[in-house]
Automatic annotation (TrEMBL):
Pfam family, one: Epimerase
Matches recorded under InterPro entries: Epimerase_deHydtase, NAD(P)-bd_dom_sf, NAD(P)-dependent_oxidoreduct
Protein name (record): NAD(P)H-binding protein
Organism annotation: Janthinobacterium violaceinigrum
GO cellular component: cytoplasm
Length: 336
């Protein structure tokens, strides 16, 4: 029987999408539990119940999920170490808890589980024939969730493009285009010239998930949706928005440079995050847009923040604009 209580467990609540889901669930009136490996913060009267535990411990997840109607699976191994060995056991724990509680699992999906044969316009039911190890694991994640939907759990997968946002964590925007906490003097773009790329503003993604959760009883037990997000048709829309926002804040327009893939090739044997980024390079060399017709048919419209507004909030959240604004507003030197 489906759990209809208004409590959601968020795994990965201190991360980018998990943290945004916490904020959007609270705004929609949900009670939220959050599992954390670190010390739990003191109660603040914000309807968040922090629990100490590990997503790799089935007992911890089962205990945390007791009485929950929704489990948001937005967790990754610490520092993304041993990702390939740990993500499936973590998901299995979530599935066990969801079956026990009759809960809905929410998974933030990606395009990694698709290969170029599904491009350039990606629909929910496109064949999943990935070219990468990470993509193959993503296929297995979704296969296990589809099986769970026949065993008493419900599943909601929302696939989106590359995340960006004020608190988005590890992503191409904050690790490729600009450096957090520094004035933006240059923008590094990883894509091939003229090749389109799919972006998704994290608060819009979380709002979409929460809106779908509100009508989950009307959805099939295994439901998948694609978001259109921000489609950069030639690789210039995102860099142009960053340049405009920075120029408005500082008076100086940053230059746009090619991303140094050669440097990543040298450093990736020593840095796990760089290895993961390099494996996904094909997504920057092939145009890929996402068809959101199914989402529009269900919701009527997709939550969508204008690009410049979303980029401004992202750069402010990353600490890129404060120094620029201070510099722009600083008094001039006294004349000698």
């Amino acid at each position: 029987m489906e759990n209809t209580k208004n409590t959601a467990l968020v795994l990965g609540a201190t991360g980018g999408i998990g943290g945004e889901m916490v904020r959007q669930l609270l705004a929609a009136g949900w009670q939220v539990r959050a599992l954390t490996r670190g010390a739990t913060p003191p109660p603040r009267g914000d309807r968040i119940e922090w629990l100490r535990g590990d997503a790799l411990s089935r007992a911890d997840v089962l205990t945390a999920a007791r009485g929950c109607a929704v489990i948001v699976h937005a967790v990754n191994p610490p520092g993304y170490r041993h990702w390939g060995q740990l993500v499936l056991p973590m998901l299995d724990n979530t599935i066990a808890a969801a079956i026990a509680e009759g809960a809905t699992i929410v998974l933030p999906g990606t395009v990694y589980n698709f290969g170029p044969d599904a491009f350039p316009v990606l629909k929910e039911d496109a064949p999943q024939r990935p070219l990468t190890r990470k993509g193959a694991i993503r296929v297995e994640l979704e296969a296990r969730l589809e099986k769970a939907a026949t065993q008493g759990a419900r599943v909601l997968i929302v696939r989106a493009g590359d995340f960006f946002g004020p608190r988005a964590g590890n992503n191409w925007f904050s690790q490729g285009l600009v450096k957090p906490g520094q004035p933006v003097r240059s923008i590094l773009y990883p894509g091939a010239p003229g090749v389109g790329h799919q972006w998704s503003y994290l608060p819009d993604v979380a709002r979409t998930m929460v809106q779908l959760l509100a009508m989950r009883a009307a959805l099939p037990p295994f439901a998948r949706f694609h978001m259109a997000g921000h489609w950069d048709h030639d690789g210039r829309q995102m860099t142009g928005a960053v340049a405009r926002v920075v120029e408005q804040a500082s008076g100086t327009r940053p230059v746009i440079r090619r991303f140094p893939w050669w440097l990543m090739a040298l450093a990736s044997p020593f840095v796990a995050t760089l290895r993961e980024m390099r494996e996904m390079r094909y997504l920057w060399q092939t145009p890929l847009s996402m068809d959101n017709a199914h989402l529009l048919a269900v919701l009527g419209q997709e939550p969508h923040t204008p690009l410049d507004e979303a980029v401004r909030a992202t750069l402010q959240g990353m600490g890129n604009l404060q120094q620029a604004a201070d510099k722009k507003n600083a008094p001039g030197l006294p004349a000698r």
